[in-house]
Amino acid sequence: MFLILSFYLFMLNSLSWIYGIMMLINKNQFMMEWMMYSNNSMKMIYLIYFDWMSLIFISTVTLISSMVILYSMNYMENDLNIKRFMLLIIIFVSSMILMIISPNMLSILLGWDGLGLSSYCLVAYYSSKKSFNSSMITILMNRFGDIMILILISLFMMYGSWNFLQFKFINNLFMFIIMLAGITKSAQIPFSSWLPMAMAAPTPISSLVHSSTLVTAGVYILIRFNYLMNYNFLYFLMMLSCLTMFMSGSSANMEYDLKKIIALSTLSQLGLMILTVSINLPKLAFFHLITHAMFKSLLFLCSGIIIHNYLNNQDIRLISMMYMNMPFINLTFNTASLTLCGMPFLTGFYSKDLIIEMFIMNNNNFLMFFMMFTSMSLTMSYTFRMMFYLNLKSLKSSLNNHYMSWNLMNYSIIILLMLSLFYGSILNWIFFSSLNQIYLPNNLKTIIYKFLLVGLLSGLMLSMIKIKSINLNKYLFFLYNFFSTMWYLPFLLKNNKNNLLNFNNNLLMFSDSKWLEFLTSQKIIMSINSIYKFKYLYNLNFMFTLSFMIYLIIMLLKLY
Question: NADH-Ubiquinone oxidoreductase (complex I) chain 5 N-terminal domain: from which residue to which, for each copy (predicted)?
Fold first, then answer.
């Protein structure tokens, strides 16, 4: 059953890719419209929009979903609730596809909320306190983006339509709300803490979440709305993305958890995509989104096999000599890591190198330039540090950890490996058929490789330093603690959670349960009661007066 499902998703991927390339070449678009409700100038229309971008993105989502389902058939074979697991994956992927093909804010909200709810169920799949806490933080962070979409739907009623494709200009308030929704879903600063916590989900789900779904939804929304953004919003996005890249790179260099290092690398690459959107290159940002999905899903699938074969150890200090235990997985993992660094002629090189060169050609200040290149160097540093620990460090575990080979898992890894090697060059020829005119002096052209060399050397140095054995003074310890905890972002959320809940409770009691209650429902009830009381007194007085008049008439009749 699951094999058939994986096959159907793979066929859908093939069809979507072929039609997407045809639409890109012929510059075609296809839209389906269903009028659900009409009232004066406000029309509730359900739209389905297909263009080359949506179809290629659907092909990427369905391809990785197919590989993840194929991988999970072996990885989760002993799980008692594997049917529930597969059903959650289907809901998760369906919500993502619904969001991709929707140019209407109402239908975007359906896919957006579906992603949030299904991700909550998937992160909390393993019943433990850590999973429940991580899933709650994930859904609460993403709920902020849902609120922004709801506010946007109500504000779009002023324009008489929820279809954003027909707008040539949009209010700055609307654009600010869209930007907040996008950076929340793509985990940019200050909403970055939920992404590493989502590692509590099973490894196949981590592969799906970090490559082509959930986190890329925010980037996709920003790419779609890019033509409506003015300079101030783009510059603000550039600042946030550079800070996110720098924060994630510095934290990954202090981290020892294998899955968390890969998760922080996702955060860095998301910052690079949003940086590309901020320099007004949405097509290039989409190109990097597609190439990143291939090697990031491969990294997570390989990490799942590594963790399983090293007795569920995620600490890279306890994983060593991989080339002796599992040479094929070691080769695949190192290839995906080099693709992450943007090594020449691998998939990541074609998008990453072009983004950096276009960024250099853009007019940016020194601070953005410095943070961008330092983040690039940090990416090289934590990647080679991780590879050094996994391959060349002295043996910290038993050599009896025999590599357990599964055919289905190997098939999915081989397909993603081929895509990580060649997919970037194929898409580069298709997306950018004409050559990009890039003019840079020699010192700027070679500065990329100088920073990469610095990152490589710093990664090797960090892998040889034993932080715990050094007597750090309080300032160095503060710096180490600051960088290793994502600039204290998770602690800010955890420590202030009770204060936030108490504030909301007090606000509820003071506003909704007191003043708002008094001014609305209670006021209405009091008014109705006073009206009834007035009517009662009026009727009572009328009866007394009528009785008195009758009494007087009777007395007068007796007198006569």
Answer: 41-86
